[in-house]
Amino acid sequence: MAENETLECITEHERILQEIESTDTACVGPTLRSIYDDQPNAHKRFMEKLDARIRNHDREIEKMCNFHHQGFVDAITELLKVRADAEKLMGQVTDTNRRLQEAGREVTAQTEEVIRCRIQQRNMATTVEKLHLCIPVLEKYSKLKEQLESKRYYAALKTMEQLEKVFIPRVSQYRFCQIMAENLPRLREEIKEISMSDLKDFLESIRKHSNKIGETAMRQAQQHRTFNSAVAKQASIGHYSNPVYSLNGRAHTHNGLMMNDEAGEEEEADEEVLTAQDLVDFSPVYRCLHIYTVLGDRETFENYYRKQRKKQARLVLQPQANMHETVEGYRRYFNQIVGFFVVEDHILHATQGLVTRVFTDELWNMALSKIIAVLRTHSSYCDDPDLVLELKNLIVIFADTLQGYGFPVNRLFDLLFEVRDQYNETLLKKWALVFRRSLSWTTTVPSQWRQRRSIKLVVSRFPFHDAEIEKQDFPKKLPMSQSVPQIYTQVKELIYASLKFSESLHRSSTEIDDMLRKSTNLLLTRTLSSCLQSLIKKPHIGLTELVQIIINTTHLEQACKYLEEFITNITNVSPETVHTTRLYGLSTFKDARHAAEGEIYTKLNQKIDEFIQLADYEWGMSESDGRASGYLMDLINFLRSTFQVFTHLPNNNNDHASMSGKVAQTACMSACKHLSTSLMQMLLDTDLKQISMGAIQQFNLDVIQCELFASSEPVPGFQGDTLQLAFIDLRQLLDLFMVWDWSTYLADYGQPTSKYLRVNPATALALLEKVYRGMKDTSKKNNIFSQFRKNDRDKQKLIETVVKQLRSLVNGMSS
């Protein structure tokens, strides 16, 4: 057992020794530590083993040294032999080195000079290289300064961008580049401020030039519209002539152009066509837009521009307080608005997104509402049709101009219908003055002409033809007044004036025809009718004048169909069209004629009342004068002469003959009835307390004259005793008292065949009481004659009896 352990130990020590011999000394430590980790006293045995190994190696070394010793000795001997040669060689080398040093000293100096030059050359090359990098930066910065001084800000921003992104990064290590880089943001802010200042100047400039821009745009639109209108109407020039009429002393034609403006328009057509770019420099807004775009702040610029333009729009839309007084006020207002939106349209198309169509449409809608409100307000103050017409033309040109720039203008044309109503109102007011002037001058007498040329002029202006008058010698007397052709011409002039307003409204011929007819109807039914009614009601107009008015209205009524044809010729719209409005002239003149007739009846009755007021009956007279009263004879003579006037009424055809006869018959019947009523009221007047039989007899004579007048046929056409029936009530009442036929009256009362059928019991009672009081008063005066007392007493008793019976009849009627 012990032997085995000893053998293993020896084998292990042998391995360790081999490992020590074969490995690096750095690895010996772990190997030696393993010796101490083994069995106790193992290191002693290892040391012994190690000593044995060392001795073994020493013997091998000794053997090797012994083997090489002789060769070593030989080498030393040979080395000693070359020692002298080596010292000699050393001397030679030292000498050679000395000479070489001396010879190379100059070369060394030149070499050092070459090295120094090489270093300088390298430094110069480096400097040139760096300068090549710096010079473009400096040149760009210098260019930047020049661009700023010349106000080329957009180019300056491009230069700054190149400096920042390309040039400065190449030489960013230099101090001057750092200074440049620090200055660039400040320069950008300065450019922003300067460009914004230029934009403000631009906004102020376009505000000042808006009027000129708008004026130019509207003039061009007007020239274009005038040219198109002239071309369009050239084809229809043969349909009707261009009558000339005057409004406020200026000559107009129906095509909407003023005759004295033609030369001016031709001169304007020759002028150079200017645009917004010619009048305003838009470069500031372009420049500012580009600058803010480059700076990445485009949205801020757009918002600022739009905000400022909205403010300017509100200022432009504010009208002057007295704008409605002259057309120039309206023209300036429209010019400024057109100039504003022409600029906006140019900005819209010349820039990318600075303003959008949505923004301009919103701005236009806001402006359109304000414009319409302003025009409604100011046009309502205008009472001059010429000014309203010029306003309409301005609105049309204004609308056409903006429509040419793509803005919707339908609401403006709708507004023109409101302005048309205002225009019609002003025309009616003006024509009312014209009608009053014509009617006040020449209405009340027929027209008389001494020259053929004059009457031809009248016939050319008014549709009148009478073969009998044509055969007469001069001077000729027409049945109508001079006011009739004047009024007819004035109505045609209003139609022309209405036609002028209807032009350029983009309406069909049917709509224009309807407008003209409605305007004419308003003129006839309201203005002319009012003037005629006012004329008829004037207190100084007498019966003769009223008869002349009836004649005039009859001729005007006959001329209405020619007005229909006149409108049809203008508009080329057939009167048979379903929706064609008819003229109401017939009813207008009929109403005027009826009013004149009624006024004739009224004035005739008033004249009768004036004569009646002259009556001076002696109601207590004992006997009549034997003849009719003087006032009544004067009244009858007046009526005879008055009814002769009615022979002048138009009777050139059966209709007018029957009409004139009807007017005369109605007037005569009305006069007789009124006379009869007035005489009856005179008898029954409550202030008249008593009447004598002599007064009754005198009154009977007057009524007989009235009946004779009625039976003399003062106006032809009455059948039988029709006119005399106006006095039937008086006749029966007077017969009752004259005959004193009370028994017959009371016996036949209520019978259709009664002789006194028209005598009312109340009327008979009132008159009888007055006669009874008269008899009693007469009896008192004549009481000295005793022989009459019995007859008076009998008559008084009869009267009392009749009065009682009449009262019973009256009471029976009332119950």
UniProtKB/TrEMBL annotation:
InterPro entries hit by this protein: EXOC6/Sec15, EXOC6/Sec15_C, EXOC6/Sec15_C_dom1, EXOC6_Sec15_N, EXOC6PINT-1/Sec15/Tip20_C_dom2
Record's GO cellular component terms: exocyst; plasma membrane
Q: Does the keyword Transport feature in the UniProt annotation?
A: yes
Function according to Swiss-Prot or TrEMBL:
Component of the exocyst complex involved in the docking of exocytic vesicles with fusion sites on the plasma membrane.
The Exocyst complex subunit EXOC6/Sec15 C-terminal domain sits at: 412-770
Ranges of residues in domain Exocyst complex component EXOC6/Sec15 N-terminal: 49-218
Sorted keywords for this record are:
Exocytosis, Transport
List the protein's name. Answer: Exocyst complex component
- Into which family does the record put it? Belongs to the SEC15 family.
Gene Ontology biological process = Golgi to plasma membrane transport; intracellular protein transport; vesicle tethering involved in exocytosis
Q: Gene3D superfamilies per the record?
A: Dsl1p vesicle tethering complex, Tip20p subunit, domain D, Exocyst complex subunit Sec15 C-terminal domain, N-terminal subdomain
Task: Look up and give the organism this protein is from.
Answer: Gasterosteus aculeatus aculeatus
Superkingdom of origin organism: Eukaryota
